[in-house]
Give the backbone structure.
Amino acid sequence: MLKKNADWRMDYIWFEFWNGRKVSEKYFIKTFGCQMNVYDSSRIADMLKNEGYEETNKQAEADIVLFNTCHIREKAAEKLFSDLGRAKLVADERFEAGKHTIIGVLGCVVQAEDEQIIKRAPYVNFALGPLMYHKIPEVLRKIKADKEHESVVNTDFPAESKFDFLPENKAQGACSFLAIQEGCNNFCTYCVVPYTRGVEYSRPVADVIKEAKRLLDTGTLEINLLGQNVNSYHGEDESGKERDLAYLLHRVAELDGVKRIRYTTSYPADMSDDLIACHKDIDVLMPYLHLPIQSGSDRILKAMNRRHTSGDYLRIVEKLHKANPNIGMSSDFIVGFPGENDEDFQKTLDVVNQVKYIQAFSFKYSRRAGTPAAVMENQVEEKVKKERLEILQTLLFDYQTKFNKSCVGKVMPVLLEQKGRHKGQLIGRTPYMQNLHVETKSANMNKIVNVKIVEATTNSLTGEEI
């Protein structure tokens, strides 16, 4: 952190640190939340590497400590301030050893909390919203030029796209995220995304294709197209014509070297027939779709300001199964939304029993300051929310376990991405996003291999290479 130096020795170290006397500068990034944040952190790393910094996974070694935050989960801000408190202790220890530390906060919590971050944690050197992280190199140069600087806070929604200022993206492994859309126009009453990420923005088709080619040329086999509302994509093509996600999927599928395509996260009301047809027509589009419903009750969906009913959702699922009978569905659920009663909750369980999700994410409703749901009447008691969540998760895990066990004896292509806990073990993912570990040679890292499933639990599979 930036402090006034205690003696001439510290001033000298400061001089060396900022004036490039071969002092190795390292950065540490902790990422919270969604896949978009994972993508953003990888782009931040690209920028810092271009500036000459080295990555470290040890916070105590880092000259620059960054927290890339998410505001979706419960008590997100409090968890951040806990991490910041620990970071301050590490920075104080480094300072006593003659080392300076810059602490930065990025992402959606910054957008939601704004100046409160600096008020509560005045040792934070800068805080940038999710649309402003391309400013990090500029902010770091400003801090280095003025050791008595005031903390920098920037939560603007800029007219220009941050993607125009990012360095070229390269593959970090066989699977790569590629952001094609950001922001949301839906304003669900429980959600902060429109306030933290802004209105919907779609990248031009040519920019997406260029980045996809670069990822494939540098080792990517699987591309996961990302957006807060990815199937609302409406980027312009080379002629200036607005195109949808179905068009973009076909363009990406035509690229040399692409073996797998995924997209997330989708909004039910934006699942067009053309997009559904992609699950029949595009061989490299994986047979797995994450399609959040949130509740099975139409009354609660209306209170959530969701633009679909449970009937709409189930008709979409039926169309998807007609397009690809092998498709597996995943979803998000919120229990205990304001006003939810036992009948509403039972309707959610009914949807689960009809769809039979192979994976799902479920949460208790928690208030988000500034959202309409936070001030709604009939807030559900915590005890009731907890009980309902336990019932829902038991049912969801039961279906997930049944699906995993149904895979035993089958042969699946598995993309191997990381080392396992045991020697000779690699971990990968099936087309259905199941985690799988297999004994195989290390040369198969970042390759797709055929694996026979021999064992299954709720959360993972065990396979044998064939």
Observations:
- The radius of gyration is 24 Å.
- The longest helix spans residues 382-406.
- Residues 1-18 have pLDDT under 50 and may be disordered.
- The chain is about 35% helix and 20% strand.
